[in-house]
Specification:
The protein is mainly α. The protein has 20 helices and six strands. Strand 1 and strand 2 form a beta hairpin. It is elongated, with a radius of gyration of 30 Å.
């Protein structure tokens, strides 16, 4: 991922230094287990820990000749360890190192993503309670529907990201498995004790059946979860983009002193963060289908999955980490305009109360069809002529026969639509 959309802590997980450190730890822990079994001298295992070093430039130099990254690493390691290096990688195959390392890296990346989600959830909760009673118009198809509150909008997004956190925790468990089973996964040349030992030391679970690779359905599920999280990011971002439109202007991204919105038009204040988040969501989701396609490998293994993972595992996790942090900042500093929300809500002459009148007419004895027609014909007058729905309904003889003017007026009450906000908040947050 390019530096513009990268944060240092996540990027470091995918840098060569961290990768080779994990490779070394896997090999060294495997040597310890082999020594416990008496397969290699204990002194050899100790030598690996004591003298084990590597240089990235030297590994790259060796790989240019060998065309094999694991062999290049082992060769460079041997240059430091000395004669005892002949006991390193006993009974193992490259995938044992590569797949187990990917599991460690994904676990490390997930821990950062979980922390990112915690920060976003905290921001959403704070702003949801801040605007719990801020009445605004709810829209369906982009058209005014019925009143809601801005806090309820944010509570909905909070619930989505809480589900995302639960899914991500499950995905971490799914992908954090260790395979040290040797060629084609039969343990013919290595004891399963080595795998158990390495798994414990690296904070992983043992992969029950690894053929020669860890099954890629695990990775497919993991990246599918990242894709869903990205879609939830886009969902909130699109909401902000809509609310910031000039014609709406109910909320907008914080516009900092000195910020510029356009190279040509000095007046512009654009929703650049939420637009950027929409784009980053596409980048993360782009990893999902290739990871699904990685599941189908030839027999016990091939490497068609390798290039996909080397590119997309870093890019998807780095992009999602950046996006979650950016969205958290957006939510924390989002500027909300309650007065504009009220102005927009009231701008359609009370049309948003039409359903309550419809239901009242049916309760008063009208058929649903007749009640719908009565309310709709008066609502259409508001669309076409202006005025208010209440005034037209009061003047409608058919409506007046069933509901008097005072009862009609009482139906145009915003509190009717917000009376269960506390209930929803308790469901989402477990408190009032």
């Amino acid at each position: 991922m390019i530096p513009r959309y990268s944060r240092p802590e996540m990027s470091r997980i995918w840098e060569p230094e961290n990768k080779f450190r994990i490779w070394f730890e896997i090999e060294a822990h495997a040597c310890d287990a082999q020594a416990e079994l008496g397969v290699i001298p204990r002194e050899a295992a100790q030598a690996v820990w004591k003298r084990g070093k590597w240089e990235i430039a030297r590994i790259d130099e060796i790989e240019r000749e060998t065309k094999h990254d694991v062999i290049a690493f082992l060769t460079n390691l041997a240059e430091h360890v000395g004669p005892e290096a002949r006991f390193v990688h006993q009974g193992m195959t490259s995938s044992d190192v590569l797949d187990t390392t990917l599991a460690v890296q994904l676990a490390q990346a997930t821990d950062l993503l979980l922390a990112d989600l915690d920060a976003l959830l905290a921001a959403l909760k704070r702003r949801a309670f801040e605007h719990k009673g801020t009445v605004t118009i709810g829209r369906s198809h982009g058209i005014h529907a019925e009143p809601t509150t801005f806090g309820l909008k944010l509570a909905g997004h909070y619930a989505a990201f809480e589900r995302a956190r639960q899914r991500l925790q499950a995905a971490r468990r799914e992908v954090a498995t260790c395979a040290i089973s040797g060629a084609v996964g039969t343990f013919a040349n290595i004891d399963p004790h080595v795998e158990r030992h390495v798994a414990e030391k690296m904070g992983l679970e043992v992969e029950p059946v690894s053929t020669q690779v860890i099954p890629r359905d695990r990775h497919a599920m993991y990246f599918a979860v990242l894709g869903v999280i990205a879609s939830s990011i886009e969902n909130l971002s699109v909401e902000v983009r809509h609310l910031q439109r000039t014609e709406v202007r109910e909320a907008e991204e914080y516009f900092s002193p000195g910020q510029k919105g356009s190279s040509a038009m000095p007046h512009k204040r654009n929703p650049v963060l939420s637009e950027n988040l929409t784009g980053l969501a596409r980048v993360v989701r782009a990893a999902v289908t290739p990871m699904m396609e990685n599941v189908a490998l030839w027999h016990e293994r091939d490497i068609s999955h390798s290039s996909v993972e080397r590119v997309l595992a870093p890019d998807a996790t780095i992009a999602l980490d950046f996006a979650l942090a950016r969205l958290t900042g957006l939510v924390e500093r989002l500027v909300v305009y309650p007065e504009r929300m009220r102005e927009n809500l009231e701008g359609m002459g009370g049309l948003v109360f039409s359903q309550r009148v419809l239901l009242a007419l049916t309760q008063a004895g009208m058929s649903r069809e007749d009640a719908y027609s009565a309310v709709q014909r008066n609502a259409m007058r508001v669309w076409q002529e202006g005025g208010t729905l209440l005034s037209y309904l009061k003047a409608d003889p058919e409506v007046a026969r069933h509901i008097d003017a005072d009862r009609l007026a009482a139906m145009f009450d915003l509190a009717y639509h917000t009376k269960h906000v506390d209930t929803v908040f308790r469901r989402v947050f477990g408190e009032g």
